[in-house]
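Lab notebook, bench 4. Still working through the backlog of constructs that have no structural model yet. Next entry is a single chain of 606 residues. Request: give me the structure tokens for it.
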Amino acid sequence: MQLPETSTPDRPHRFCLVLIKPSHYDDDGYVIQWLRSPIPSNSLAAVFGIAADCASRDVLGPDVAIEIQAFDETNTRIRPARVARAIETAGAGMVMLVGVQSNQFPRALDIARPLRERGIAVAIGGFHVSGVTSMLGGEDTDLDRARNMGITLFAGEAEGRLDAVLRDAYAGTLAPIYDHMRDLPSIAGAPIPILSAERVRRTAGGATTFDAGRGCPYQCSFCTIINVQGRISRRRSPDDVEKIVRANYAQGLHSFFITDDNFARNKDWEPILDRLIHLREVEKLRIGFIIQVDTLCHKLPNFVEKCARAGVRRVFIGLENISPENLAGAKKRQNKITEYRKMLLAWKAVRVITYAGYILGFPNDTPESIRRDIDTIKRELPVDLLEFFYLTPLPGSEDHQKLVRAGTPLDPDLNKYDLNHVCTAHPKMSEADWNAVYLDAWRHYYTTEHITTIMKRVAASGGNASNALFLITWFKGSIDFEKIHPLEAGFLRRKFRRDRRPGFALEPAVTFYPRYWAHTASKLVKLGLLYLRLRRIYLGIKHDPNKGAYSDRATSDWDDADGEAALFGTAAARDFVDAQHRLAAAREKGVAVTRETEAATPPHGA
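Model written out:
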């Protein structure tokens, strides 16, 4: 971690702006950090781009040099004392903890505490501050801790608003809170999100990020996006997106994660994809993308096909559950189990690897029903990688708001609100049962037999089975050996003895380092052996002359009329299918079916 200490004769004054995306703690109290972390933070890139624009416009005056450094704690050790010294040497500056999610808020406060003790100005923004401000009017114990420390809170988005914060910080008049939740900005023509190649290359795969749009039209009760970014699509223009791609390509970055929560609902998806297709097919830029979509994306004409042509190689899908009853209870009625297979087969037809998020712990879930549903997915849905999460009342969601207002006991430790810990009671499962079924879900899905099936399906479609092998090894190794969710896992875990959460004992060096080195070596050996074992399976599939002819229940031709389909075998599923048939018949007769009418259709014969 290095910070600049420079000024020029024409700019004798300096303002040192340090942007930090904090990580969070593991169950042993150590910061989750890697030699190479998963994906860079788009919030960090966005704020860096906005700050760089402020610097170029001399918002602090022509004689003040604004020096900006951005650090992602998931791949960089943060030393508050060094940060404080750099700002003190500059004579002015501040620290912004950006994109702070609820699970990262305790760590953000721990970074801020020694800075505030030295009089350094600190601001915290991100989903926790914005979500709590939006849904609870800012009433939150942890926000109170921040206020008591003299930390400035920033709710909302920084486009067009950062100038005022920087001027106030330079003048020493920072406000306690900057609340822009009722005035979300347009992002068309806004400064582009960008990070230096040096920062990006600290991630596995060297992928960078940008948001083509913000906001989501749906109403999922467990989601924070709609209450932080709104339900109206705000988007960058195709020109903006091209500018982002070219700027990153110029510094040698070719892989991009488009962080829109649902790119399929970006109203400009087609002109954006057309622009990316031109860059790939006409200008021959070697670019690739990861996107996030909903389960109805395939119904948009040409969407899947154009994504593939634009260079989309992996897609995250909010499958969430296969029970219509659970989906309706979470207000996720846009997920129609009758469309799941069609959607997944559409992606497989264009050789795109699919990830699907799956939530465990809906009110009707039991260990038996969860295991049965996972068996159904393995047998009947051609999804590649499945990611499991606890149903978590995230601050900023409707679920959290309802529980708080009802006085329902919630875990007070925000560090656990990472979708990988139990945070409240379940009506049918004890905490021990819920934890056990979570681990069992991973083990039950990623069996050697099913991993073989996944790679056979990928190979049969002409997809990149070697990439599937790598990703499966990553996912299985993260859970089995690192004990960390794959989306938080990177390459080569780093731990620093003194970077332990307050309340945990500082371990003696004579025991900490030998144990850390031994654990690291053991995990690398186990991961290597897992990869070699799975690679033998992959090579057998690769060299099979008949691999293209492989087919199974999930990839064969059948629909919701199939009486043997377990996907439609429950009473709730059959009622849902019948309701969808009635709606389809009404449409054929020319009867208007509104979104409200469809949403009101009973999910389980109620």
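Notes after review: The first helix runs from residue 42 to 56. Confidence is low (pLDDT under 50) at residues 2-7, 599-606. Flag for follow-up if needed.
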